[in-house]
Specification:
This protein has 71 residues and is mostly helical. It has three helices and no strands.
Length: 71
């Protein structure tokens, strides 16, 4: 992730997709706090890149992670 951010930049669509994928994996592993933190970083970067919300349509159609009843 750090290499992708450094080479492509924080707001590049491939960086954002990787952030989403990693957050989804963390969520499935039960690491909900870290997954949420990463998704929030992704959203902030996407807004900065002009991709905005609603959940930035998601870049290439990937579903968002489910945080369960609290998220």
């Amino acid at each position: 992730m750090q290499l992708r951010r450094r080479v492509l930049g924080e707001e590049h669509r491939h960086t954002l997709t990787s952030m989403n994928n990693l957050a989804g994996m963390l969520s499935r592993m039960g690491e909900l706090t870290e997954a949420r933190r990463l998704h929030e970083q992704e959203l902030e970067a996407a807004v900065g890149a002009g991709r905005g919300t609603p959940r930035h349509a998601h870049l290439d159609g990937q579903p968002r992670a489910d945080y369960g009843p609290d998220g």
